[in-house]
Amino acid sequence: MLNTWLERGLQLDMKTTIVATGITQQANNFDCGVHVLYIITKMIEAEKNGKLLEYLEKGGVPIEWGTAEIVANYRLEVRDLFISLVESDT
Fold first, then answer.
1. CB 39 within 8 Å of CB 66
2. For 9, left (φ over 0), alpha (ψ -120 to 50), or beta?
């Protein structure tokens, strides 16, 4: 992704911060990783759709990316994916 950003002329350096404004934090001690995976997935999708640069230039990613309900559903999707991978391997 970094190569794509640089090709488009966005200058990223070691001090660049991507802000996910308005995204809810987990309300427990175990969903942090799920939040991170979900936001990374959404950023990859946005890059594929040519929208990530626009979001970064505006200073953040859409708030709707990180509602508690969406992330909770994503956690279930990830769990189901892991279960299906384990079951298909046995």
1. yes
2. left
Distances (CA, A) of 62 to 18, 27, 42, 71, 78: 12, 20, 10, 14, 22
Dist. CA 10–CA 54, nearest whole Å: 11
pLDDT (tens digit per residue) in 10-56:
555 545 555 555 566 777 787 788 888 888 888 888 888 888 878 77
* pLDDT higher than 70, residue 76: yes
Tell me the backbone φ, ψ of residue 17, rounded to 5 degrees. -125, 135
- Cα–Cα distance between 9 and 35 in angstroms, integer? 29
Encoded amino acid at 52, one letter:
L
Closest CA to 37 of 85, 82, 87: 82
DSSP 50: T
Residue 29 carries which DSSP code?
Answer: S
